[in-house]
Amino acid sequence: MDILNVAIYGASGYTGAELIRLLAVHPKVRIAALSADSNAGRPMADVFPQFSALDLPVLQKIDEVDLGPIDVLFCALPHGTTQVTLKAALEAKPELKIVDLSADFRLSDPASYAEWYGHEHQATVLQEEAVYGLVEIHRAAIAKARLVGNPGCYTTTALLPLIPVVKAGLVDLDEIVIDAKSGVSGAGRSAKVGNLFTEVSEGFHAYGVGKHRHTAELDQELSLAAGSVVAPTFTPHLVPMNRGIYATIYVKGDPKAIHATLAERYAAEHFVTVLPFGEVPQSRHVRGSNFTRIGVVPDRRSGRAIILSTLDNLVKGASGQAVQNMNVVAGIDEGTGLQQLALFP
C-alpha cells in the first residue's frame, strides 16, 4: 500500500504531540503538515523538544495547510472550534478522511449536542455522517467512514466493559455506577489554575459531578446497546498523575456471567485484555500503550459485580485510538504503529 500523507490540526497540544509520537514510527505514514495557530512558524521541536531527532514540518496556521496531498487529517482542536473547520476541509477535498479527537462529532443527535455543549451544532449534515470511533464496537462502520468521531477517554474506559454485558442483558440498567479517575493530561495543555502542581498534588477530587459532558456519550452508546434508554451514574475525578485513567464500575448482575461474556467477547481483540476472574488491573500496566485491561470481581453482596477498567488516556483514550481508527479506515492492519508496550516502572 502507498504511504499515507497525514496532517494534524492542533499539533501543539498533548493529543497532537501523542499523535506525532505514534505516527513517527508508523511504517505506512508520512507526517506532511502540522498546524498550531499560536505557535505557527516554529519548529515542532521548539514546542516539544523530545521531537528534535525527527524531520517534521514547521507548524502552520490552519488556513495555510495545503490539503491537496493529504490523505488523512487528524483534528486535535478544542470542541466547538472543529465543526466549521472540518466542514471547510471536506468542502475543499471531499475524499479526505478525517479522525476528529474533539467532542464535536461524537454525538449523533443535534439536540443532545446542544444540551450538553450549550450551542447549536454548526455542521449537522456531517454530524449525521460521522461514525463513533470505538473501534472494537463499531469496526465495520468505521471501515466505511469518511469522518470518525474519536471517543472520549472516560467513555472508552467505561464502554468497552459495559457494552457487551448491557447488550447481553446481564446487568440491571437502572443500577450502573461509573466511578472514574483521570490523570491531569486529560484536562489538556492550556494553562489553568486548577492544573497547577500545587493545586493537584497530594490529593484528588471529583469534578463535573452530575454534569460531565462525557455522560452524553455514555447515554448514547449504552442506550444503543440496550435498545432502550440507559442513564448511568458517572462521576469523574482528577488524580495527581500525568497520564492514565481508571474506572470502577458497580453493577447488579451475576459476576461470573459478566466475566465469561467479556472474556469471550474480547478473546480475539489485540488491544483489550480481560484478566482472570477476581484479578484487578493496574494503570501502570498500560501506561504509554494502546492496551486496555479489564477485571471483574464479585461484590460481597450476592448478585452484584465490580468491573474495573484501565487504559492510557492519551493513547487508547485519545491518540492511539485515533491511529487505530485511521488504520481501519485506510485498510491497514489495525495494530500497525501501535505495538508499544507499557512503560513500567
Terminal Cα separation, in Å? 37 Å
In the CATH scheme, the class of the largest domain would be: Alpha Beta
The total beta strand count reads 14
User: What is the CATH architecture assignment of the largest domain?
Assistant: 3-Layer(aba) Sandwich
Low-pLDDT ranges: none
Mean pLDDT: 94
Question: Which geometry do the CA atoms define?
Answer: globular
SS content category? alpha/beta
| Largest sheet features | 7 strands, parallel
Per DSSP, what share of the residues sits in E-state strands of 2 or more residues?
15-25%
Helix content: 25-40%
**What is the H/E string?**
EHEHEEHEHHEHEHEHEHEEHEEEH
CATH superfamily of the largest domain: NAD(P)-binding Rossmann-like Domain
Contiguous helical run count? 11
The CATH topology of the largest domain is Rossmann fold
